[in-house]
Design goal:
This protein is an alpha/beta fold and 283 residues long. Helices cover 40% and strands 17% of the residues. Helix 9 links the parallel strand 4 and strand 5.
């Protein structure tokens, strides 16, 4: 299995696939179940946490299907090698190897089109915004049971929207709202949405500043520290928390690299915290 380092962030190294020189057999869409069955038959997988096993199986099915799409492979050439690399990881018999391969594909898809227009970049810098980072699998797994058919979900600082699209793909719900300042990222996200087969009416794309979108109409909010919690960016968290204290319906918040806790107070107790992902639910 061959990979190259493409990013390092907060002590974590991210990889992408290096395209092989020999011909890669592209799977048919209906072949995805073969990889899933093989994964589920690995020693130790049957005893895995059911939520994690089901998540990884769903991602195998999705990524194998995407690797069979000519449009995806034109836009993401490294995905051509995904079926072969996945097969090699399955042959090791180690579920952790399989998860690592899935994570590399996830980071690859998440990182495409990291572009901002000059005016968008100035706006990001003015408010102390962070450039888009991948939130990982933990939020996707923990979301089971918190996202329902009628859920109105928002991703604040969505990037190309992959995380929000995966929430919609894994747990179909009323609406996913993707809030992002970068126009090119939104265009990339719309392509991903089509390739993933998610209906247009299930996703709302908002090209704008996270500071301008009140959170009061959402039931589930996901965010990966969209702005720094000091200086001008502090205004976002104060307004965000203030608006949520006035909401009269239940709200769940999944926050990566959290800095919301000091702003939310007792109205939003923490029900899960592993140091990376902090989860709040309105009292």
């Amino acid at each position: 299995m061959e990979s190259i380092i493409v990013a390092r962030y907060r002590g974590t190294i991210y990889f992408a696939f290096r395209e092989r020189s020999r011909q890669i057999a592209v799977p048919k869409k209906e072949d995805a179940h073969r990889w899933v069955d093989r994964f589920c038959s690995l020693p130790g997988v049957s005893g895995e946490d059911g939520g994690k096993r089901d998540l990884l199986a769903a991602l195998i099915r999705l990524f194998v299907t995407l690797a069979s799409d000519a449009g995806v492979c034109t836009r993401y050439p490294e995905m051509k090698s995904f079926p072969e690399v996945l097969t090699e990881s399955l042959e090791t018999g180690d579920p952790d190897e399989v998860e690592a391969v899935l994570l590399r594909a996830y980071v690859l898809l998440h990182g495409k089109s990291m572009g901002y227009a000059p005016s968008e970049r100035r706006e990001m810098n003015r408010w102390g915004g962070y450039w888009c980072h991948a939130g990982g699998f933990a939020p996707l797994r923990r979301a089971a049971g918190h996202i329902h058919e009628g859920t109105r979900l928002a991703d604040y600082g969505a990037g190309n929207g992959l995380q929000g699209l995966l929430f919609q793909f894994l747990y179909p719900h009323a609406k996913t709202t993707q809030i992002e300042l970068s126009g090119p990222m939104i265009e990339e996200g719309k392509r991903l949405q089509r390739w993933m087969g998610i209906p247009a009416e299930r996703v709302e794309w908002i090209h704008g500043n996270v500071l301008d979108i009140p959170p009061d109409r959402f039931d589930f909010i996901y965010l990966y520290r969209p702005v720094r919690p000091e200086g001008p960016g502090k205004v976002f968290y104060e307004k965000f928390a203030g608006a949520l204290t006035k909401v009269n319906h239940p709200v769940t918040i999944f926050s990566i690299a959290d800095c919301l806790k000091e702003f939310l107070g007792e109205n939003f107790p923490v029900f899960y915290d592993d140091g990376q992902l902090t989860c709040f639910r309105s009292a």
